[in-house]
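FW: tagging you since you asked about this chain on Friday. Here's the raw sequence from the shared folder, copied in full. Didn't touch anything.
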Amino acid sequence: MSSVPRADFQAILRDMPHKPGVYVMRDRLNHVIYVGKARDLRKRVGSYFMPSRKFAADPKTRALIESVWGLEYHVVRSEAEAVLFEGRLIKEFRPKYNVSFRDDKRFLMVRVHLDDVFPRFALTRLRKEDGARYFGPFPNSGALRSTLNAVRKKFGIRSCRPVEPGEGDFKHCLDHIIKNCSAPCVAKVTREEYIQRVRGACDFLDGQSRDMIHQVEAEMKAAAEKMDFEKAAQLRNLLEDLKTTTKPVVRFTRRSLPTTIHPEADLAALRDALGLQSLPRVMECFDISNISSTHIVASMVRFRDGVPDRANYRKYRIVGTPNQNDFASMAEVVRRRYGRVLREAAAGRDMEFQQESVGEVTHRIAEETQTTVLPDLIIVDGGRGQLSSACKELQRLGLHEVAIIGLAKEFEEIYRPERPIPTRLPEDSGALRLLQRIRDEAHRTANGYHSLLLAKRVRESFLDGIPGVSEARKTALLEKFGSVERIRNASAEELAAIPGISLKTARQVLESLGK
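HL: got it, structure written out here
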């Protein structure tokens, strides 16, 4: 890649406004090397190019200043938007001089599902397609937590954790006594009245917060007039948090980022980088999560035309590899995935592999149905070992023609079956960014599944080791009551009503659970 002329920074600074925004620095090869945010763009960026900065700055900053060849900036409406925008750009470009935001951390959001019996607000960092309402993301987590506590108290929204609180859970909760909850679980309000409270709280988080803000302002002034300055200071801090949380903010998504993702261009760049005959419109990526020997899992994520195809994600529990072995686990998941794909494709078209080659079968199915049976490119998270294990399974299945690569995370090296030396693409290459996106998505999905199983294991472990409670009986108990806590709060007769559980076993279960 050829070098570009160095930008006239003083001319750029003269046009730069005194407004909040994000600035992007590039080197002589036009690679993004640093992304920063600023409350005042001209002051912040101008400080880099003061003559004294080269001598007073630390070695890292001096190296950055000497490497800067190009500069661009984006104006936003508030400092909070600048934080969100900066985080998105850093995750996308992965500049070498940035440290923050390069991992999987996300901003907090508020989740509520109005179809729950008694909905509650919860904090989350991941938005799911589960029918719930999500508010955010919010860049200031402290202000969000303070605001959410105030909203719960004002609208009487429960904060207890059970999905459906009952008398057994209620005895541990005192929120209704201190007037922090409307207590629908003990019929203080009807469900319809409670849902109306929740909708009002949702309207507040949507920005309809003027009445509550005016109320807090009035209480603050009243406290100050009574010389209750401690309470006035608390109300002042709450007022600032309310205004911070409910301030309208642009939610920067991947589609709204300027000049960061161009699926078609990235696909073309990846095709050229790997020497593929056509665009890899359908890609599938595998990742193994084996933080411990308990619940070794794998994920397969599919991208179609450069964007996630979440309906075709798959999650696997590794069953044929008892210990931590990434190579054997990768072989197992590749074998299971494409063995099943081929069996289903052949069964659906009433074909036999003995009469035709696998390539002929899949090619004919694709032509007749206009659907893709196999991906254009397979990606495995890992280096030579993981790639070799996956290739062996593909060869056993007769899938010699499917393109496959390994992507090693440490140096972002691309391993290919026919080449002994890995390939490294430029850091700002659209091809590399596309591979990083699908690899990171596979990593997130695998880790999420592993965490889910681990949490489930912790919840269910209280039933392990109880005499007379087999795996089938444990499953029946959990299916009926939903949690160990509800089993503990049930009577022996209720437990004994489940087929296969005697009254003696039911009493033993309750005794073991401390009842």
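FW: The radius of gyration is 29 Å.
HL: agreed, and DSSP finds 19 helices and 14 strands in the chain.
FW: great, closing this out.
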